[in-house]
Design a protein that fits this description.
Rossmann fold; two-stranded parallel ribbon; 10 helices; mainly alpha
Length: 169
């Protein structure tokens, strides 16, 4: 879910465990910049891509970046996957099964993080509840339920989160 700490977990995996990060949110922002779409239209843009190209549309946009990374790196973490079809799309195109990591934080904690972070999309984009509903409708709940690993990140310190990650990866 938004603001659960996916990016923080990925950064720790990159810095401490030697992973390379592919952030699907960054790919969306790159595509929006190319098309001169304002940040407050992120939800509309993503949903329109999914309506036109299917629920794996963001994976389709991200695959060229992933293929480039896999040519040079073995340990990769993909952040921002929202649905099972995205997972399957990636697996078909890299011909390898992905190990899923779910990062969980309570609504209260995520709301607090949103107020602290104040990224453009947090300020100008969908309201908190609307964004959560969109993510659930897009399939993030299925990914969480079928994750190979679940990292609880509700009120953890960075050190506690690092310990949790180093124990598993």
């Amino acid at each position: 879910m938004p603001l659960s700490g996916k990016t923080t977990v990925a950064k720790i995996m990159e810095e401490k465990n030697g992973f390379t990060v592919l952030d699907m949110g960054d790919i969306v922002r790159i595509e929006m910049d190319k098309r001169k779409i304002p940040v407050e239209e992120t939800g509309v843009f993503v949903n329109s891509l999914r309506e036109e190209h299917g629920m794996d549309a963001i994976a389709q946009l991200s695959t060229p970046y992933l293929k480039e990374i896999t040519e040079e790196k073995e340990k990769i973490v993909i952040t921002g996957m929202r649905g099972w079809k995205e997972k399957k799309f990636f697996e078909e195109h890299i011909e390898e099964e992905l190990e899923m990591i779910g990062v969980w934080a309570s609504r209260k904690t995520r709301k607090q993080r949103r107020e602290e972070r104040m990224r453009d999309e947090d300020i100008k984009g969908d309201k908190f509840h609307e964004r959560d509903i969109r993510e659930i409708e897009n399939g993030v709940g299925k990914l969480m339920a079928l994750s190979d690993h679940l990292i609880e990140n509700d009120n953890n310190s960075v050190e506690e989160l690092e310990d949790s990650i180093s124990e598993r990866f």
